[in-house]
Amino acid sequence: MDRLSPRQKHCLTVMDIQIWEARTSTHREPRTPALSDNGQSLASMPAHEEWLALQHQVTQCVRCELHVTRTQTVFGMGNESADWMFVGEAPGAEEDRQGLPFVGRAGQLLTAMITALGMRRDQVYIANVLKCRPPNNRDPMGAEVRKCESYLHQQVAHVQPKIIVALGRFAAQSLVKTTRPIGKLRNHVYTFEDSGIPLVVTYHPAYLLRNPLDKRKVWQDLCLAKRVLEAA
After folding, report:
1. Cβ 124 vs Cβ 86: under 8 Å
2. Which residue ranges form the domains of the chain, and what is each CATH number?
């Protein structure tokens, strides 16, 4: 960030973190086309139609039993050409009602984190590993992840972010393919699958609402992600 606006300084104050400065990179890699539900390329479609087709697939999805209890699917939101992509674990009750990821208090804190980085929420892309809410906000099951994760892979392939931030233990373990605790996963840079896209792990905003002292750790993780992006 070159100079912090009053709003950015306010967000940093809310998060109880110190101000830092960084530069912004503008280089982007070529876009990789998404795949249809049967694994075929949608490259022949214009990019926007390709994206709408993927959204429709998610809306109609019945791959696992979560479709029985959901109110609606939560595809994701934001800039489909974003450099930054934030990935949580699954929709909660309010997300299930609104059909949008990261709303409510946790969503407000995520917005503050993004603003502190010098961006608006509509400049990044936000998604979840699962597109449907697990009943009573329980942890996603392995079978549910396996049946749903191709949607996230297609989103990543379409957006082609320059950095992915995994929010929370479950998202981190799912994206890194490990069972290690999140405290052991922080402070490292991973690669998402075979995409070559760097991935950094941090705590979920909902966790920070319960453990506000760890906000400084999250800011350290975001600083790491920023440095990785600049070096790309």
Report:
1. yes
2. 36-231 (3.40.470.10)
Q: What tokens appear for 99 in the block?
A: 């059909």
Residue from 149, 143, 144 nearest 129 by CA: 149
Q: Which stretches within the chain are classed as H helix? A: 6-15, 47-59, 66-69, 93-98, 104-116, 142-159, 169-176, 182-185, 205-210, 215-231
**How far apart are alpha carbons 109 and 124 in whole angstroms?**
15
What the block records as the tokens of 84 is 């930054």
The packing angle between helices 6-15 and 215-231, to 10°, is 130
Q: Helix or strand or coil: residue 22?
A: coil
The token duo for 151 is: 């949607």
Q: What is the pLDDT of residues 114-155, one digit of tens each?
A: 999 999 999 999 999 999 999 999 999 999 999 999 999 999
**The two structure tokens encoding residue 70:** 């959901």
The CA-atom distances, in angstroms, between 184 and each of 76, 179, 181, 187 are 28, 10, 6, 8
What pLDDT, in 10s, does the model give residues 148-199? Answer: 999 999 999 999 999 999 999 999 999 999 999 999 999 999 999 999 999 9
Helices 47-59 and 142-159 sit at what angle, rounded to 10 degrees? 170
The residue type of 120 is R
Contact 166, 176 (CB under 8 A): yes
d(CA 195, CA 191): 7
